Please model this.
Amino acid sequence: MKKRLLAILLIVVMAVSLTACGSSGGETTTKAPETTTKAPETTTKAPETTTAKPEDTTTSGGSGGIGKDVKDIKLAFCINNMADAFPITILRGVKDCIKDYGIPEENLIYQGSPVSDFTQQTTILENMLIGTDVDGLLIIPTGGDNMLIPIQEAIETYNIPVVTMDQGITDENSFIAHVSSDNYIGGQMAAEALDTLIKEAGAKSMRVATIGSNPAADSNQNRLAGWRDRIKELGYTVVSEQWCLNDPSTAATQTQQILLTFDDLAGMFGGNLFCSQGISNALSSDGVKLPLVCFDAGAGQVEALRNKEVDALIVQKPYLIGYEATRMMIEYLVNGTVPEKYTRLEPCIAYYDDLENPEINKYFYDVVE
Model:
């Protein structure tokens, strides 16, 4: 009962905090916290390509294994947003890994929230595990630590290991591995691309702005920190940092406000596919041509790149994130192989000329049905 009360209190506090962070409050140049820190340097990079079908692994061979035949392993995957191409592409990686291990498709249960909302994901997580005998939990925790207590309760109730993806949680005792992009490096890549584009455009101003998705997620904070650090090193002034809370219409309104306040803006950075959609829509509707670099490569963003509404995309590798996280979980359950605590994959960058490049477009995200 105490833990449930604490969970309710934490959810209320975090909801209030997110509302405060996401609101522009009538100000156009809301600044994100300057105290954002770079992700740990001690992370390891996962393979750039998926591995071949695993060798025959049938029984537990280590202290962490559960003694099951690999084909009897059952996993749960709790998804943060079923309307987002990024986690949907992660899901494909999860499914392919399970298939490569010979695990029946029905041994994977997966559910997700229709939007990025940790209260909805909490309910989904609680309900999807009831009456199941899953051996491990894969999860993209909405807002990171917003999902910490629900994850801890799942561990306590079902005695299962957890692998987190994309967004992390701070209690390292609550997960055996975390797999994500190297968002700090990705942010730096975005800054360098924007610098190149601004110079090519011949802009005289050194003022830039950014709109991010959700400040509660460490992935978003890290990519903002990487972009901010590098763009300042390159001599630019960041005149506005705002959060749209994954709402393209909010991002569009924020962009219009920024353009009205800073008519000499040199370029913009969008923190994810929802930010990208909103920013590019605002620029197009206002007839403004401005260098724009955005994170992610959903179908809409790829089309915007093709139409030259976006100049460059920082492409994450969600398929590999899903595949690698699932591989780690299966090897831990069957063989007792303890995975690296943190694995971060470096993104790649796509310009217009890369649209038909198979070494780049193979990482473009799946279409959401």
In short: Residues 2-22 form the longest helix (21 residues).
